[in-house]
Amino acid sequence: MNNPLVKVKNLKKHFPVRAGVFSRATGAVKAVDGVSFEISPNETLGLVGESGCGKSTLGRVLLRLIEPTAGEVYFNDKNLVTLGSEELRRMRKEMQIIFQDPYSSLNPRMTIGNIIGEAFTIHHLAKGREKKDRVLALLEEVGVHGEAYNRYPHEFSGGQRQRIGIARALACQPRFIVCDEPVSALDVSIQAQILNLFLELQEKYKISYLFISHDLRVVEHIADRVAVMYLGKIVELAKAPELYKNPLHPYSKILLASVPLPDPKLKKKRTIITGDVPSPINPPPGCQFHPRCKHAQDSCRQTEPELIEHAPGHLVACHFADAEKP
Ligand code: SF4
Description:
The protein has 326 residues and is of the alpha/beta class. The protein has a domain at 41-63 and 83-223: Rossmann fold (3-Layer(aba) Sandwich). Helices cover 30% and strands 24% of the residues. It is built from ten helices and twelve strands. A hairpin with a 2-residue loop joins strand 11 and strand 12. The radius of gyration is 21 Å and the shape is globular. The model has no long low-confidence stretch (mean pLDDT 90). Bound molecules: iron/sulfur cluster. Iron/sulfur cluster binds at residues 249-250, 287, 289-290, 293, 295-296, 300, 305, 318-320.
């Protein structure tokens, strides 16, 4: 692995739960609970898991859009958690986020030219004619006609709005982008075009992505490595081909087996994940997946498995990851 661009160490985000007249803290939602990983330059780490597993919170905490409860996040060897606001603002140029819903993330009262040009103004990168030229070049880069410059977000389709969101993220020439479900709101035919745009931009500008999605097919298309998240923790992390071919954690296996298959004849092989995700306020003891795991044994209910390397680069948090399971 290259020298990592992003290094996350034991990152936690616990939201206090308050009750009573005095709003006393009575517990905490452990949205992110001790997550560690690294992302190399020009690498895409896919982050998958069911809705509510903490993956979007992780993306935001990582950029310090939400303050972490504990842990460290190094970007280019600088710990973002301890940076002052001015230095953090300067670093933000290099770290951007693209959201799921391009409509709500684009100000409906601003023209596309102003939305994209805002980044040049905030970071004092360009003004006047130069700013306009750079916005037009970005629009061309993402496949949107320059006529969009004076128009408003509501005049565009979902796919075009996401292209505009990507242009805005690219304005400061970032080295790292958190992509939070960036194609989930789009039609399948448009999804492929946007994913290809992400790949082309990465190839050209050597950007690293943390690509968050609940859709394993989408992540397979774009990720170099994949992390599987469950109840605020990473339970498996491996190179994408390895994880899709040889998942070792029972949760990853179920997630992969529940992916809808395009061929209806293969339908009977699908597995539907059963049971609800337990409450992150009061997670089960031991392995947090044990109430839903058909391989659970007594030790699973008592001792939490650590995320350890079972094969080179393949980390799993399961006491029986090496055991043959039916
Ligand atoms: Fe299932 Fe036990 Fe592995 Fe948890 S540790 S995933 S309960 S087999």
